[in-house]
From TrEMBL:
Coiled coil: none annotated. Keywords: FAD, Flavoprotein, NAD, Oxidoreductase. It comes from Streptomyces cavernicola. Gene3D superfamilies: 3.50.50.100. This is NAD(P)/FAD-dependent oxidoreductase.
Length: 461
């Protein structure tokens, strides 16, 4: 793609729609745009460019199941080039955006290899959907020992890590090493933390039957939450039930507690507790993507883009946003000033309205408001265990777990992925769980480097 090109062929103007981000909003917006703009794409009067750091979209609600081995990692992601066959997919990162000049500064793998610096991509319509990143705090030792849970790589790495800790505990003669290996600390009581903890504890409990000297009661699972409740999305009643359910499984749930430090592989809580541990999983919220601060677009006090109900940026033309990066007014709420929650349920629906409004703007037609009343939430707590609060109805146990699976199966993109996930679930119901750790995948050249006279890479987590 030529730098500084307006994307217009001589004598035939071409409108370029630039989509920044390949997550929920980016994928679904581009998918609907290429469907609604078929005539324009065929004629060459419109071009859709998607800039994303990864060549795939990750369906994050399935990350806990991927970590537990219920779903193959490759079925949790959707290849963008295959799905967005009418779009130009650029694997790179937007570093800054100058909307006044209609330009985005982008770095790609090629610019890094060439050493020529970032390129500028110009556009006519901008869809900004870079998503969010983990919100970390200046906790001593967190950068050195913490593990995130936002990407498929982190989910599979965490699975390998947990099984590896069980292997260490099984083979060591040092009680201190064994205790630290079998202590798992999760920080954050939202969806990511609770579901990841629930699925991995369930997986480790199952895996322990294949270890002659590791029993479920030998493992310590600790959930640390700064507020006085977990899973606020499912309501107070079901949140309280979740706490009771986790504690019934001997999981130590600590509310109104913070992680003060995890230096030297010791988790220190603000209530004075100290836990030697080799596993600290950080899922304590998210914050807007840094690229938003490198734009001339309007943002609110929390750093999210100010949007109208039509998903256009406030007091700005030719710019649109949705999802985690956008502060979208919830016009269905009784209380004025309420914003849509930054979750997958809203993101999927916002993408549809956003794409339709971009098409309407290009064709000179009226725009529509985004209005969706929040239906509720579902969460998995491990195999056959879950909680749900949907349309005012509260479910728990197997019915909630089943609803969780049905809902997310219906929402994962493409029939291909739906069929593969369903097939894996079916096979998992017929055969025993896989408990294999493939941690060596994280260092694929380790064996060759050793053979060539090098050293094995040291464990970093």
């Amino acid at each position: 793609m030529a730098a500084n090109s307006r994307g217009r062929a001589p004598g035939s103007p071409r409108a370029r729609i630039l989509v920044v981000g390949g997550g929920y909003v980016g994928l679904y917006t581009a998918l609907r745009l290429q469907k609604r703009l078929k005539p324009e794409l065929r004629q060459g009067s419109v071009e859709i460019v998607v800039v994303t750091p990864d060549p795939y979209m990750t369906y994050q609600p399935f990350l806990p199941e991927a970590a537990a081995g219920s779903i193959s990692p490759r079925h949790v992601v959707v290849p963008l080039r295959r799905v967005l066959d009418q779009c130009k997919v650029v694997i790179g990162e937007a570093q800054s955006i100058d909307h006044a000049k209609r330009t985005a500064t982008v770095t790609t793998l090629a610019t890094e290899e060439e050493g020529t610096g970032a390129v500028e991509i110009t556009y006519d319509e901008l869809v900004l959907a870079p998503g969010s990143i983990s919100r970390t705090l200046p906790v001593p030792g967190l950068a050195d020992y913490g593990i995130g849970f936002k990407t498929v790589e982190e989910a599979i790495g965490l699975r390998n890590h947990v099984i590896e800790q069980m292997d260490i505990a099984s083979s060591t003669r040092d009680p201190a090493v064994r205790d630290a290996a079998l202590t798992f600390v999760f920080v954050g009581g939202g969806y990511a933390g609770v579901e990841a903890l629930g699925e991995l504890e369930d997986m480790a409990r199952y895996a322990s039957r294949y270890y002659h000297n590791v029993k479920p009661e030998d493992m310590k699972w600790i959930l640390v939450e700064a507020s006085n409740r977990i899973l606020p999305e499912v309501g107070e009643v079901m949140g309280s039930y979740t706490v009771r359910e986790l504690r019934r499984r001997n999981i130590d749930v600590r509310l109104e507690t913070r992680l003060d430090s995890c230096q030297d592989r010791v988790a220190v809580l603000d209530d004075g507790s100290r836990f030697p541990t080799r596993t600290v999983v950080w899922t304590a919220g998210v914050k807007p993507h840094p690229v938003l601060a490198a734009t001339d677009l309007p943002r609110n006090e929390r750093g999210r883009l100010k949007c109208t109900a039509k998903l256009a940026l406030d007091a700005t033309t030719h710019a649109w946003a949705a999802g985690d990066a956008a502060a979208v007014p919830d016009i269905t709420a009784a209380e004025p000033g309420t914003e849509c929650a930054p979750n997958a349920q809203h993101a999927l629906r916002q993408a549809k309205v956003l794409a339709d409004n971009v098409v309407a703007a290009l064709r000179g037609r009226p725009l529509t408001d985004y209005a969706h009343k929040y239906a509720g939430s579902v969460a998995s707590l491990g195999l056959h265990k879950g909680v749900a609060h949907v349309y005012g109805r509260k479910l728990k146990g197997y019915p909630a777990w089943f609803m969780h699976r049905v809902y997310h199966l219906s929402r994962v993109p493409t029939f291909n992925r739906k069929a593969r996930v369903l097939a894996e679930w079916t096979l998992a119901g017929l055969f025993k769980r896989e408990i294999v750790s493939l941690g060596s995948l994280e260092h694929p050249r380790a064996e060759f480097e050793l053979a060539a006279g090098g050293q094995r890479p040291k464990e970093s987590s």
